[in-house]
UniProtKB/TrEMBL annotation:
Origin superkingdom: Bacteria
Upper taxonomic lineage: Bacteria, Pseudomonadati, Pseudomonadota, Betaproteobacteria, Burkholderiales
CDD domains: YcbL-like_MBL-fold
Alphabetized UniProt keyword annotations: Hydrolase, Metal-binding, Zinc
Domain Metallo-beta-lactamase stretches: 13-193
Protein name as it appears in the record: MBL fold metallo-hydrolase
SMART domains: Lactamase_B
Cofactor names: Zn(2+)
Keyword Zinc applies: yes
Length: 212
């Protein structure tokens, strides 16, 4: 069975998630945007052996510590979709712009595409490409625990911004309604910022995508 712990990092309070298989204790960090020492310490405290870094997209608050952690721990970087290559290339500039510690650039070990899957211990997690916030944004759907790690696609009561380079509002709405809603109303999602919610609750009440 998969387990996870949400660990807000950086001044943007980005929800990095430590996810692991409770049989093998192999784990991954989803969107390690910063505070890498604290993330490593939390994994060690829980007895989780980090085996990979998973990225939903390459904005600085989601990917800022990725290059450093991958280098220090010898971990593969999984994701995002190649559409975010230009955001990865710009990480050093992003870090300066937003006052973050300088981010190391990196090349993902494996790019992800819609319909792919990633493995963690005995568990398999589905990947969906959900562009709109960024062109290469992906989400990780852990159906066995009815959870989806959605990055900045959807929030409790809101949706991701689309005014950054490569963003597109109509594309984002389509990603939500065509890729997320079919995962089921009971699926709980872990957004990139703020509290968890369910797809059913947002489908009914989110003012940006409600009743869609």
């Amino acid at each position: 069975m998969l387990r996870y712990l949400t660990l807000p990092v950086t001044a943007f309070q980005q929800n990095c998630s430590l996810i692991w298989c409770d049989q093998t204790m192999e784990g991954a960090l989803i969107d390690p945007g910063g505070e890498g020492e604290g993330l490593k310490a939390e994994a060690q405290r829980l007895g989780v052996k980090l085996t990979a870094l998973w990225l939903t997209h390459a904005h600085i608050d989601h990917a800022g510590a990725t290059g450093t952690l991958a280098r220090e721990l010898g971990l593969p970087i999984i994701g995002p979709h190649p559409g975010d290559q230009f955001w990865i290339d710009g990480l050093p500039q992003q870090s300066k712009m937003f006052g973050f510690p300088e981010a190391e650039t990196f090349t993902p070990t494996r790019w992800l595409a819609d319909g792919d899957s990633v493995s963690l211990g005995h568990a398999t997690v589905a990947v969906r490409h959900c562009p709109g916030h960024t062109p290469g944004h992906v989400v990780f759907h852990a159906a066995e625990i009815s959870r989806c790690f959605v990055g900045d696609v959807l929030f409790a009561g809101s949706i991701g911004r689309t005014d950054f380079p490569g963003g597109d509002h109509d594309t984002l709405i389509n990603s939500i309604t065509q890729r997320l809603w079919p995962m089921g109303d009971d699926t709980i999602f872990i957004p990139g910022h703020g509290p968890e919610s369910s797809f059913g609750r947002e489908r009914r009440s989110n003012p940006y995508v409600g009743n869609t």
